[in-house]
Amino acid sequence: MSVPVIHVVDDDEPMRTAVERLLRATGYEVRTYASAGDFLLAPPEPVPGCLLLDLQMPGPSGLELQQALQRHPVSLPIVFLTGRGDVSSSVRAMKAGAVDFLTKPVEPAELLKAVEAALARDRSARARRESIHDVQAHYASLTARERSVLDRVVAGEPNKQIARALGITERTVKMHRAQVMAKMHAGSVAELVRSAEQLKR
Description:
Elements: E1 5-9, H1 13-25, E2 29-33, H2 36-41, E3 49-54, H3 62-69, E4 78-82, H4 87-95, E5 100-103, H5 108-140, H6 144-154, H7 159-166, H8 170-183, H9 189-199
Parallel strand pairs: 1-2, 1-3, 3-4, 4-5
Helix pairs in contact: 5-9, 6-8, 6-9, 7-8
């Protein structure tokens, strides 16, 4: 499994160096950037990680970078760092999905705890995306008839009603239904319903 990459974006060089040393000593891989622009010029690889982001920097601010990253298909969880306790900014950051908002100088234990929380969120988001991708691949393998049966099974219709609606025998419905369950890797109707819900996201 990939070692998580922590991206540190901060215009304060001593701060960047201190955070990098702490994270490397803990076993993380670290990339540092002196500005939001530098980060955008070197997009991160699609590996687990998070972003430690300074709030106030020359050029685009941390909040502006957060907004820009929301338009990316896969965004990294963000922990904000700031030299000033700015309540309105912290509220905006948290509403936009930030994991935490820490005030400098930050305690090492507090920083590591926030990073672990961000990485846990990243793992969860990646697992969710992978699950949705798998469900989409399973759904793509269904025939048009099987998709019709899936829709009606998920809607709670009994086999007899499905047969009547589709103009086929109940036995044929059962056959299609078994195929749907197998192709969708569903062990029960409840699992099939959950998969169908994922397809809507």
